[in-house]
Amino acid sequence: SFGKVMQVRKKDTNRIYALKTIRKAHIISRSEVAHTLAERSVLAQINNPFIVPLKFTFQSPEKLYFVLAFVNGGELFHHLQKEQRFDVNRSRFYTAELLCALECLHGFNVIYRDLKPENILLDYQGHIALCDFGLCKLDMKDEDRTNTFCGTPEYLAPELLMGNGYNKTVDWWTLGVLLYEMLTGLPPFYDENTNEMYRKILSEPLHFPGPEVVP
């Protein structure tokens, strides 16, 4: 979810952390209380090498503070923007680690719902760390469905767009979209016109590029 993130040092140990600061008035005015509580709940209960761990939480009268592990390799988004696309081996590596992260979330009955390069960090060894859990849906068993329209347009699954309810499988659709983007540089149904992009997601066949595009 939204919030200012800073690199900080804990005085008694000299350890470096990422401090996420969220103004209470902001989340109340934007009806984001439930999303913020969901993010804290997910981070507090899950321990996985491919998910950014929550170390501490505290609050002041005006703000909430999440103290997270500091992941210093930057967003996957910036690496993809700089390099335009990744080769097959690198894309496969990131996808495998993301699959492990999503399987972990699903095992806790959590749908992530916002997988995109901006929400994936890289550590100093090149491993991924999933972050930003503000759009997660909790308590979703395999047979459950939800209807909330949320996520990032180019990554939305068809069943979410149709409005008839969806389940954990939307995360697998989004992982496929992300893999396609890592290999080619753009999501498979991308269009500058959002409504046209939604139409393509719902009705256009998926075209796989040739070897001249995928390195």
Automatic annotation (TrEMBL):
It is an enzyme of class 2 (transferase). SMART domains: S_TKc. It catalyses: L-threonyl-[protein] + ATP = O-phospho-L-threonyl-[protein] + ADP + H(+); L-seryl-[protein] + ATP = O-phospho-L-seryl-[protein] + ADP + H(+). The lineage of its organism: Eukaryota, Fungi, Dikarya, Ascomycota, Pezizomycotina. Its EC number is 2.7.11.1. One of its GO terms (molecular function) is ATP binding. The keyword Cytoplasm does not apply. This is non-specific serine/threonine protein kinase. It comes from the Eukaryota. Keywords: ATP-binding, Kinase, Nucleotide-binding, Serine/threonine-protein kinase, Transferase. Residues 1-215 form the Protein kinase domain. It holds the Pfam family Pkinase.
